Amino acid sequence: MDKLSPQQRHANMAAIHSKGTKPEMIVRRGLWKRGFRYRLNAPDLPGHPDLVLRKYRTCIFVNGCFWHGHNVALPQIDNGQWIIDNSECCKIPKTNRDFWVRKIRRNQARDIEQQHRLARLGWHCITVWECSLKPSIREQTLTSLAYTLNRIWLEDHAVQVSYPEAEEGVGTMLAAEEGEEYETEKTE
The domain 18-149: what is its CATH number? Predict the structure, then answer.
């Protein structure tokens, strides 16, 4: 049973914003401290990613575990009842369960669709979950994120060079006897 009146619950839920959240601020500060520069909530990209790093062609989504159903098995209906396998970081409320299940399912489907659209446009997508920013593992998560961004940049900017196979004796150095100078073998 909910301890708040419907009006109080509505006010509480309406006060939750999607931009400038605490998990997003943690990621932003961590990346800035590591030298990464980014833009916020790019309106020209599908899904309006939380952080956009154009140099790395990467979009970062910082997701709240509850709102995006982190590690929650999608429920199956059994005789009109929901069978929900909650995770450690996300528990579906028991009151108004049908509404929450539909909402979280829509959020998950929208997230997948937006990331597919970004991938078709040539963008890399990274999702950082709220639970991975707990103080005990925060630095590990941010270090891993920085490593991933650097790896993406290196793979995107790798120079593919193929050297021709050298024929035996063409342009190779011959070892000189002791006291002699080295000569380059010449072929005609």
Answer: 3.40.960.10
